[in-house]
Each structure stands twice: as C-alpha cells, then as structure tokens.
Amino acid sequence: MTGLGTFLAAIAGPVVKRAMIALGFGVVSYAAMSAALNSALSAAKSAWGGLSGFPEALSLIAMAGVNTYCSIIAGALIARVALQSLKKFELVK
Questions:
Q1: Closest CA to 84 of 28, 21, 20
Q2: Where along the chain do its domains lie?
Q3: Which of 15, 40, 41, 32 is CA-nearest to residue 85?
Q4: For residue 33, what are the CA distances in angstroms to 16, 24, 41, 44, 59?
Q5: Are 58 and 52 a contacting pair, CB within 8 Å?
Q6: In the list 30, 37, 47, 74, which could disulfide-bond 85, CB 3.0-4.6 Å?
Q7: Is the dihedral of CA 47, 50, 55, 57 positive or negative?
Q8: For range 30-50, the mean pLDDT
C-alpha cells in the first residue's frame, strides 16, 4: 500500500498544479475581456445619452432600430465572452 500511496502523491502534485494554472489563466482572461466589454458598453451608453438634446435624432434612430441592433450586438459579445471562458475552464468543448 505504501507504493500506491507514494505513486498517487507523486501524480497528484503536477495534476493539481496544471489545473490551478489553467483555472487562473481562465479567470484572468475572462476578467480582462469582461472589463473591456463593460468599458465599451458604458461608452456606448454615454454616447447614446449625449443625444438627449436632439429628440428628432433620437426618434429617427429609434425608428431605424439602432437601439435593437446595439442590444443584439452587446448580447452576442457577452455570450461570446461567457462561452470562451467556459472553454478555458474546459466545461465546454
């Protein structure tokens, strides 16, 4: 039994080390991508709010569906970041 315990202890160290490195990289890359996406979304929101002095322009943009377009693109980017982080954690292939 001592040989088996020694063997398992020798294998467990590198496996745990590799798992921790993989998880750390996944968390860091998700945090960076999430911060960049949040920054871009807040810039878009502030630009949209800057048009409040021009109600005609806002109504024309709303009729064109630009707000729906922006929502769809933002949702797609958020889904992409989430799926990419799941791939880093090896939860999705």
A1: 28
A2: 21-88
A3: 32
A4: 26, 14, 12, 17, 33
A5: yes
A6: 30
A7: negative
A8: 82
Q: What is the distance in angstroms between the CA of the first residue and the CA of the last residue of the chain?
A: 37
Cα(26)–Cα(84) distance, rounded to whole angstroms? Answer: 9
Which has the closest alpha carbon to 89: 12, 14, 16, 24?
24
- The residue with greater pLDDT, 79 or 14, is 79
Task: Give the CA distances from residue 56 to residues 29, 53, 60, 86, in Å, rounded to whole numbers and listed in that order.
Answer: 41, 9, 6, 43
Q: What is the pTM of this model?
A: 0.55
Q: If you count DSSP H runs as helices and E runs as strands, how many of each does the chain have, helices first?
A: 3, 0
* Both structure tokens of 28: 């860091």
